[in-house]
């Protein structure tokens, strides 16, 4: 695969060239953290970060998004009918996305791009995007990507992988989209530099790991009825931080919002951690307690998704939910409880 | 790319108040664009998202039968935000329908078999669709005996009263209508809860009989042992679930039971399938 050398002194110039054919998005400093946003004219992405606070999922699934607009004014010929809004799906480049966040899009794609239905908003935004990854040399202590089907130099889901090599970047071109971007940026200096060693060094810095190999063979109902959920969920305050920050959580709500006679049908991120998420109109709630909700989150990620697609767990090991949970609920511990659960060994039998 | 969130525009053609408490109304819709009716080709047991512009969408079982042409019907209980607003709407009003959504009762598998239908309260909507479908002259010969146990709190709470009376008169369907209690001296059908009437009137399974059961959880809970006693296998007991939904197409993530999305992989499941799934419904 082609590796290209990009001098950092030329970086700003190349971004200038890219800003014509592409809308540019990248991490920028946002108070004490970094988050993704659309870059203004001459605005540079700031690569001085470990990972963004919130994942890059909003690049394709915005936190709030208009699905339709409508009018309630009976004088208008199409009153009360949904109108599809004009959207900008011109090519966009997401600069400096971490490999975990890029891989996460492939997991989420199985939900939004199915044989039966395609979510046109998600699919169009995804297809319009070129993902320019930034390899990780300095992982957080909570990262466990290498045991979650990903890694600090992981290439799946990326079009181009940048590796920081001091005064220059090494860029590995991975797809046709990546090639097109390289061309548009005017990057042409090929090198035979090898990133393999840097990759192995980075992987060796990932300090924690999970085991998932037993999950597939266990019955969902056994895991569901396992005795550890009550304790696991005890401290959870159902704040939803874990799901909002996670790159592989995609649940959303749909709401109509009216302003006078005009309105929009919106979709907004939602969370399985909230009681309203599943509340029936009758008042009945099948996930009544926080134990139900915490269990749902981990069962979805580590069991239901695995069973549904047979393509690994619904987690890339970015560690955000661990870093941000106010009560230190740790998916690595829960995964261990699930992976090692032995339904036969229940100690609660009555003599 | 088709937009699965885009509803077909429809006009409310007729509104029928079904029950004495006025909480259940049947809405008959006509598609604004006639070609949309073909795109909405459905099977008995499926549902649609009724899109009340400015309020939101609600998943509602299709009460009309695929054999009825020119309109679609839904019977809606007045519950919360959207359904209450829908109850204030008038004939001629414009709104939308998305669908058909979800799977359906296993019509192909049930061909050549006896069918027992058990319904309680207002969960009789897709069962009406099913009965009309099976009684259609083109379809009746495909099924053996058809029994229907249908119960409501009182005579005034039964849905589709005129049709029930007509079915009572036919000899190709065995109706067992019941009410919990009544002081109406002219009531000529059964009195008692659905599980009891099922026990007394429903045929035992011949090994291949299918039972379709829809109703409040309490009714289902007490009817299930009755069906066990009558020899119904759990893969011959068919149920339809009603979880809270938004997208209806398996994407928004809220309606799952285990790995199945009720909106897309359901709402119709066999009891055998449900037994192997966390009971979050
Ligand atoms: C497959 C399927 C088939 C169905 N078939 C039928 C049928 O044939 N007939 C039928 O009548 N029903 C049917 N249902 C049930 C029906 O979908 C619900 O009764 C309906 O969705 C209730 O919607 P609602 O807007 O009226 O109530 P909701 O809006 O859900 O209101 C419930 C309560 O939640 C609260 N609430 C709602 N929105 C908000 C908000 N934004 N913020 C805070 N609180 C809020 C309010 O307190 C409200 O009273 C079916 C359901 C499914 C899944
Ligand atoms: S971040 Fe922690 S406390 Fe908040 S909902 Fe998630 S697990 Fe519960
Ligand atoms: S579950 Fe936690 S570690 Fe896994 S992808 Fe989501 S935020 Fe990252
Ligand atoms: S209603 Fe959205 S996933 Fe089922």
How is the main sheet of chain A built? Answer: 7 strands, mixed
**CATH architecture annotation of the largest domain in chain B:** 3-Layer(aba) Sandwich
Approximate shape of chain B: globular
* Structural class based on helices, strands and sheet pairing of chain B: alpha/beta
How many strands in all of chain B? 15
Mean of residue pLDDT values of chain A: 94
Blueprint (SSEs and pairs):
The complex is a heterodimer of chains A (351) and B (281).
Chain A: E1 3-7, H1 11-18, E2 23-30, E3 33-38, E4 64-71, E5 92-97, H2 99-112, H3 120-128, E6 129-134, E7 160-164, E8 168-173, H4 176-185, H5 196-204, H6 220-224, H7 229-233, H8 241-245, E9 252-259, E10 262-269, H9 290-309, H10 320-324, H11 331-339
Parallel strand pairs in A: 2-5, 5-6, 6-7
Antiparallel strand pairs in A: 1-8, 2-3, 4-10, 7-8, 9-10
Chain B: E1 8-17, E2 24-31, H1 34-39, E3 47-52, E4 56-61, E5 72-77, H2 81-87, E6 94-101, H3 107-110, E7 115-120, H4 125-135, E8 146-152, H5 161-169, E9 174-179, E10 190-191, H6 194-201, E11 210-214, H7 217-229, E12 237-240, E13 256-257, E14 260-261, E15 268-270, H8 271-275
Parallel strand pairs in B: 7-8, 7-11, 8-9, 9-10, 11-12
Antiparallel strand pairs in B: 1-2, 1-6, 2-5, 3-4, 3-6, 12-15, 13-14
Helix pairs in contact in B: 6-7
């Amino acid at each position: 695969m082609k590796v290209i050398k990009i001098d950092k002194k030329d970086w700003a110039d190349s971004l200038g060239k890219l800003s014509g054919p592409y809308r540019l998005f990248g991490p920028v400093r946002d108070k004490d953290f970094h988050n993704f946003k659309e870059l203004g004219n001459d605005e540079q992405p700031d690569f001085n970060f470990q990972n963004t606070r919130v994942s890059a999922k909003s690049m394709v699934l915005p936190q709030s998004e208009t699905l339709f607009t409508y009018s309630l004014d009976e004088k208008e010929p199409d009153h009360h009918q949904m109108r599809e809004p004009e959207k900008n799906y011109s090519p966009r480049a997401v600069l400096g996305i971490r490999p975990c966040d890029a891989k996460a899009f492939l997991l989420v794609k199985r939900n939004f791009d199915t044989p039966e239905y395609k979510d046109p908003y998600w699919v169009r935004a995804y297809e319009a995007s070129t993902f320019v990854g930034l390899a990780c040399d300095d992982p957080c202590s909570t990262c466990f990507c290498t045991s979650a089907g990903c890694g600090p130099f992981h290439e799946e889901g990326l079009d181009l992988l940048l590796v920081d090599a001091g005064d220059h970047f090494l860029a590995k071109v991975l797809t046709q989209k990546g090639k097109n971007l390289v061309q548009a940026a005017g990057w042409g200096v090929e090198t035979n530099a090898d990133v393999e060693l840097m990759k192995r060094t980075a992987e060796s810095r990932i300090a924690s790991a999970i085991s998932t190999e037993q999950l597939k063979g266990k019955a969902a109902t056994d895991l569901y009825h396992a005795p550890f959920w009550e304790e696991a969920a005890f401290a959870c305050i159902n704040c939803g931080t874990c799901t909002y920050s996670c790159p592989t959580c995609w649940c959303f709500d749909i709401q109509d919002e009216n302003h006078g006679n005009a309105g929009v049908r919106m979709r907004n991120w939602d969370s399985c951690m909230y009681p309203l998420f599943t509340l029936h109109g009758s008042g009945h709630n099948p996930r009544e307690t926080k134990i139900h909700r915490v269990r749902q989150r981990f069962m979805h990620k580590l069991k239901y998704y695995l069973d549904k697609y047979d393509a690994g767990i619904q987690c890339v090991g970015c560690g955000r939910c661990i870093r941000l949970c106010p009560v230190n609920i740790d998916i690595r511990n829960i995964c261990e409880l699930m992976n090692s659960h032995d339904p036969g060994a229940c100690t609660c039998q009555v003599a | 790319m088709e937009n699965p969130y885009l509803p077909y525009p429809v006009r409310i053609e007729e509104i029928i108040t079904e029950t004495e408490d006025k909480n259940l109304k049947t809405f008959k819709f006509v598609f604004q664009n006639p070609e949309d009716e073909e795109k909405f080709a459905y099977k008995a047991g499926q549902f649609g998202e009724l899109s009340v512009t400015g309020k939101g969408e609600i998943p509602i079982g299709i009460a009309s039968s695929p054999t009825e042409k020119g309109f679609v019907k839904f019977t809606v209980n007045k519950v919360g935000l959207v359904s209450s607003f829908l109850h204030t709407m008038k004939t001629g009003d414009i709104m939308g329908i998305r669908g058909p959504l979800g799977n359906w009762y296993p019509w192909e598998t049930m061909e050549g078999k006896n069918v027992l239908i058990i319904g309680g309260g207002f969960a009789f909507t897709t069962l009406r669709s099913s009965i009309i479908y099976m009684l259609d002259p083109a379809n009746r010969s495909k099924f053996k005996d058809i029994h229907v146990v249908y119960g409501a709190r009182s005579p005034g709470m039964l849905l589709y009263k005129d049709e029930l009376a007509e079915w009572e008169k036919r000899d190709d369907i065995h109706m067992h209508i019941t009410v919990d209690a009544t002081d109406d001296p002219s009531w000529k059908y059964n009195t008692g809860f659905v599980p009891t009437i099922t026990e007394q009137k429903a045929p035992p399974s011949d090994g291949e009989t299918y039972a379709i059961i829809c109703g409040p959880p309490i009714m289902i809970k007490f009817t299930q042992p009755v069906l066990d006693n009558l020899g119904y296998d759990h893969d011959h007991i068919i149920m339809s679930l009603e979880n809270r939904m938004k997208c209806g197409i398996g994407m928004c993530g809220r309606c799952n039971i285990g790995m199945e999305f009720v909106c897309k992989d359901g709402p119709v499941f066999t009891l055998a399938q449900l037994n192997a799934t966390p009971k979050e419904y």
